[in-house]
Amino acid sequence: MGANLSNLDNATEGSKSCHELVLVFHSTHKWKAHLEASKATNKLLVIDFTATWCKPCKHMEPAIREFAEKYTEVEFIRIDVDELMGVAQEFQVEAMPTFLLIKQGKVVDKVVGAEKEKLQKLIEKHRT
């Protein structure tokens, strides 16, 4: 039974949501492995630090889906701050939503709050 549970866990880790456009992590270990692997690429990561109870976060979900459809060369990631508190603390996330733009393992920009236009401008600035 333990093997079956770990297989199910592996199937959901790093799984995509929002119509297969946004990666969702449920484990700090798998997130860190993904972040480490991304350092070898020049791909922009946009991390959406969110919470299920956060109304502005819900308000931004359609925008994130829209951006993920438009900017296919960018990787969009959702991390629930209540589920992965350590990751949120590591990146000093203090308000939701917080969007971190990361390239080669380094934070290149940050948006705090439901600021769709600002986030889009920063994605366009850093995507290449």
TrEMBL record:
Q: Where is the Thioredoxin domain?
A: 1-128
Q: Which PROSITE patterns does the record associate with it?
A: THIOREDOXIN_2
Family annotation (InterPro entries): Thioredoxin-like_sf, Thioredoxin_domain, Thioredoxin_H-type-like
Q: Which UniProt keywords apply?
A: Disulfide bond, Electron transport, Redox-active center, Transport
Note whether Hydrolase occurs among the keywords: no
**PANTHER family xref list:** THIOREDOXIN
**What protein name applies here?**
Thioredoxin
